[in-house]
Design a protein that fits this description.
globular, 180 residues, 3 helices, 19% helix
Length: 180
């Protein structure tokens, strides 16, 4: 038992020294690097498989790297994913059909897909919930949850749009990340 405990302590220490977050499932984990640090996001393919696949596809293409948080509302959410930075842009991929759920709720740290008035209009824009927003349940697709680094999301500049918006430094699927 003592050897097992020592081995576990060593494993956690190495993970801490590497600066890389341990991912339960690297293929369904996103690393969102912001100016202040890394946000680790657990994707939820069991409730939103098409949206999870879209986020991973765009992240793998580098689509999100450098994009601004163009809409950040105190006590509500931080939105990004628009290449125009206006809230009107999207990727060149087709829009997605809604994947609403009752299994998860829009609580602090939940990630949802932004859309227009049509429930089937989500494309590339997403938001991170800053506080309880359960009033969005059943109206927006929830596809992930922040599991580490929410304090860095809290530091994103507020505004609609912010005067000097924060940007995504890099967004990648953990399974694809290069170990330095």
């Amino acid at each position: 038992m003592r050897k097992l405990t020592t081995a576990l302590i060593a494993l956690f220490a190495m993970a801490g020294f590497s600066g890389k977050a341990l991912a339960a499932d690297p293929e369904n984990t996103i690393w969102l690097d912001l100016k202040d640090g890394r946000v680790v996001i657990e994707l939820l393919p069991e409730i939103a498989p098409n949206h999870v696949e879209r986020i991973k596809t765009l992240a793998r293409e580098g689509f999100y790297d450098g994009l601004t948080f163009h809409r950040v509302i105190e006590g509500f959410m931080a939105q990004t994913g628009d290449p125009l930075g206006t809230g009107m842009g999207s990727s060149f991929l087709d829009d997605l059909r809604a994947e609403f759920t009752t299994e998860e709720s829009f609580t602090r740290g939940a990630l949802g897909m932004a859309r227009s008035h049509s429930p089937d209009s989500a494309n590339s824009q997403f938001f991170i919930v800053l506080d309880d927003a359960s009033f969005l349940d059943g109206q927006y697709t929830l596809f992930g949850r922040v599991v580490e680094g929410m304090e860095f999301v809290d530091n994103i500049k507020r505004g609609e749009p912010p005067s000097d918006p924060d940007r995504i430094v890099k967004m990648q699927v953990a399974a694809d990340a290069k170990v330095n």
